[in-house]
Write a structure and sequence with these properties.
Layout (H helix, E strand, L loop, with lengths): L2 E4 L4 H12 L5 E4 L7 H4 L9 E3 L5 E3 L1 H11 L10 H35 L7 H22 L12 H15 L9 H11 L5 H4 L18
Parallel strand pairs: 1-2
Antiparallel strand pairs: 1-3, 3-4
Helix pairs in contact: 1-3, 1-6, 4-5, 4-6, 5-7
Amino acid sequence: MRKLYHYWLCPFSRKIRILLAEKKLPFQPIAIRPWEIPSSFLGLNPEGIPPVLTDDDGKNIANAYPIAEYLDEVYFEPSFLGQTSAHRAEVRRVTSWFDEKFNAEVTHNLVYEKVLKRRMGQGGPDSAAIRMGNSNIHDHLEYISWLCDRRKWLGGDEFSLADITASAHLSCIDYLGDVPWDKHPTAKLWYSRVKSRPSFRDILIDVVPGLVAPPNYANLDF
């Protein structure tokens, strides 16, 4: 059976979990804690960073970007990268926005500072970084609203890897209770549609050791 090495609050891991569920590909989740990486995992990915997918044939693919591309090439129906070259380019652009820009400006400043930093022995949270993350998220939620005013989903008229990626990042922030949904109703409506998909169920029942999610995290009517 295929295996996915992941960490609960890693948006890149969550993205692959959602994508596997959307493609209806069963897998065994294996949790990896970034502050205590086993030597066996380093044999799969010398960087020591989840996610890593071990497919049914024993092939190991590390890093969310190549895993997503691999899954869409090998298990191409349904595709979540788009049906035309122009659509695929737009899906990849929006996906990169969240994996790079959102991750640097929001996810790192909140998830890393609040949860991972101390556990990894790298000191206490940086309050300035947390304030920056809480400030930056508004621009990104406005961007989601801007996209939703112009198309059905973030990457176009079809649900795609762009929606999966954005929701994976936001779900990690939402687990901390740091998404100001009340100030961004259009983005909230988009997220509620993603949150209602069957592929999101396992994300909503996640329990991160040592952290309790706010009540609205798993609530579809939030």
